[in-house]
Design a protein that fits this description.
This protein is mainly beta. Helices cover 0% and strands 16% of the residues. The chain is elongated.
Length: 173
């Protein structure tokens, strides 16, 4: 058992908590003291914080998606920004490993055709609390693995017949 102010390494010894997340591996035979520590994974946007495989750029006032996010990152938390006029069909082509994408509360009025084509591994897409009024045909093309799609809080008045085409794994809408 470790004392207050200490963390236990998986290999046994206790370390002072100030040695955790300091950039040096102090636990013998493990990296428990450096596991799940925040790190910079997008040099162009140092305000975004990463932990493990998740980037968090929530409520950072961003108008552009960082294009230098480390390629191993597969969970994107991008809510509360202003991506409305800057998302393009190529926005996510560099990140085919993404499994979770949160674009909620970004003032999105539309989704560019083909924006999701490279995201065949995406399982959860959160588009809540945007300004979407219509879903156009093939909007979600490429999302064959998508299981959950959040759309609440939008002003949807038109859903074209083929707008959900390709969502063969969708189980929650």
């Amino acid at each position: 058992m470790c004392r207050a102010g200490q963390l236990r390494c998986g290999s046994g010894p206790c370390l002072s908590v100030d040695r955790a997340c300091d950039g040096y591996i102090d636990c013998p035979l493990t990296w428990d003291d450096e596991d799940n520590c925040p790190f910079a994974c997008a040099a162009s946007t140092p305000s975004c914080e990463c932990r493990d495989i998740t980037i968090s750029c929530e409520r950072r006032g961003l108008t552009l998606l960082p294009q230098d996010i480390e390629l191993q990152i597969s969970r994107f938390r991008l809510s509360g920004n202003f991506f409305n006029h800057t998302l393009t069909p190529a926005s996510f082509t560099r990140y085919p490993h993404v499994v979770f994408l949160d674009l909620s509360n970004n003032s999105l009025t539309s989704l560019p055709a083909g924006m999701f084509l490279s995201l065949s591994r995406l399982r959860i897409l959160d588009l809540r609390d945007n300004l979407l009024s219509a879903l156009r045909n093939s909007t979600f093309l490429g999302l064959a693995s998508l299981r959950t799609l959040h759309l609440t809080g939008n002003k949807l008045v038109a859903i074209e017949g083929w707008s959900l085409y390709g969502l063969s794994s969708l189980s929650a809408l």
